[in-house]
Amino acid sequence: MNPEEPLRTADFDYHLPPEMIAQHPVEPRDASRLLVLHRDTGEIEHRHFRDLGDYLQPGDILVANDSRVIPARLYGFKSDTGGRVEILLLERLDERRWRALGGGKRLREGTRLTFRQDGGAPDALQATVTAVLDGAQRELTFDAPLEAHLDALGHTPLPPYIHEPLDDPERYQTIYARPAGSAAAPTAGLHFTGELLLSLRERGVRFETLTLHVGLDTFKPVEAELVAEHTIHSEWATLSPDAARRINEAKLAGGRLVAVGTTTARVLESAALRSAGIEGSLQAISARDARGETWDICPWKPVVAFSGATDLFIYPGYRFRAVDAMITNFHLPRSSLLMMVSAFATRDLILHAYREAVVEGYRFYSFGDAMLIL
Fold first, then answer.
1. What's the pLDDT score for residue 283?
2. Of 224, 232, 237, 243, which sits 20 to 30 A from 314 (CA to CA)?
């Protein structure tokens, strides 16, 4: 690929046989396979996730996204006609308003919707379409706060490429998930078991969490022809002052910062950019990096605590300020997540690793196997 030419979305395509898309998680969690990619040499090793400790050192710090997936898929009907609707909650706007994807015909502003428990239980919840947003997105205003009804009304929002039911909804949650708010799981963390985390701690590896509530926009293919023309949706994230301090202490003591997943990497890099006093859109900073317009000379930036939205779009050319290594699953073609890992390890090296993963029979996507990029 000519570095002088603009990056095209088609440059991040690859062929994946459909049968390699994992439909079920493996048991136990850490029995999944682990492709280890060494950025400095291009060497690839084939291991299992339970072997992760062989590649970490005392003083390294694992940072993971502790967001919990909400039962965000709701089935209901139009209150006036009885027509069926399917709603996928994307973002809580306030106590009663949500941004959502609406499946169903003619969900116009003012349409009233009714949601009931399975079996048609009498206690129902109603909502009104209060705004028509981009595409199939709608703003819904519920008649009462939704959180108290979600467990009864909602269903686990598995990705569309998973066609088989999940026996245990907790298998689409990380074992350390706490604050609820995601429409999709931060899947790189699904491989951890309590026993594995304990063994890593005994080796001197630290563990820290932050929160990014994952929206489905993260996983959508990029539709713009040129990568730089894609506008990524912002997501809400928080990095606490105590967590930021411990991460910086680990880095200053010589430990490596290992991001568990692309969502974690996005928060850490957003926090590092904020430490330089950057104002406004972080996506603009990523674009300046990609054009070679370096705005700072420090190869490492400490992370700072923050709570709010991030619109950071990381693609090849971006210079990582915080993250030293990354644990990640295998991502969809043309997705912003594939572009992020290509920024971390180069596009050619990532696509080479993906081709080898296909040959070696790895399982792909949310319930699939993992990569460790060093």
1. 79
2. 243
d(CA 228, CA 287): 7
Strand pairing class (370-373; 33-37) = parallel
Cβ-contact 322, 257 below 8 angstroms: yes
**Between 262-275 and 336-345, two packed helices, what is the crossing angle to 10 degrees?**
70
Domain 73-153 has CATH 2.40.10.240: yes
DSSP letter at 7 equals P
229: Cβ contacts below 8 Å, ≥ 6 apart = none
Given a cut of 80, is residue 333 above it in pLDDT? yes
Query: Which residue(s) pair with 310 in the sheet?
Result: 235
- CATH 3.40.1780.10 in the chain is located at 9-69+170-373
- Using CA atoms, how far apart are residues 366 and 337, in angstroms rounded to an integer? 12
- The CATH number of domain 9-69+170-373 is 3.40.1780.10: yes
pTM: 0.92
CA nearest neighbour of 186 among 175, 201, 195, 196: 175
Alpha helices (runs of H) in 256-316, residue ranges in sequence order: 262-275, 282-290
Residue 5, CA distances (Å) to 173, 292, 314, 339, 345 in order: 41, 13, 18, 16, 19
Intervals of CATH 2.40.10.240 along the chain: 73-153
Q: Is the pLDDT of residue 278 over 70?
A: no
Distance set, CA 229 to CA 7, 8, 90 (Å): 10, 10, 23
Region for 364 from its dihedrals, namely left if φ exceeds 0, alpha if ψ lies in -120 to 50, beta otherwise:
beta
- Tens digit of each residue's pLDDT (9 = 90 or more) over 208-255: 999 999 986 666 778 899 999 998 888 899 999 999 999 999 999 999
The DSSP letter of residue 8 is: B
pLDDT tens sequence across 283-308? 777 778 788 776 666 678 899 999 99
Report whether pLDDT(122) > 70.
no
- pLDDT digits 0-9 by tens, 176-205: 999 999 989 999 999 999 999 999 999 999
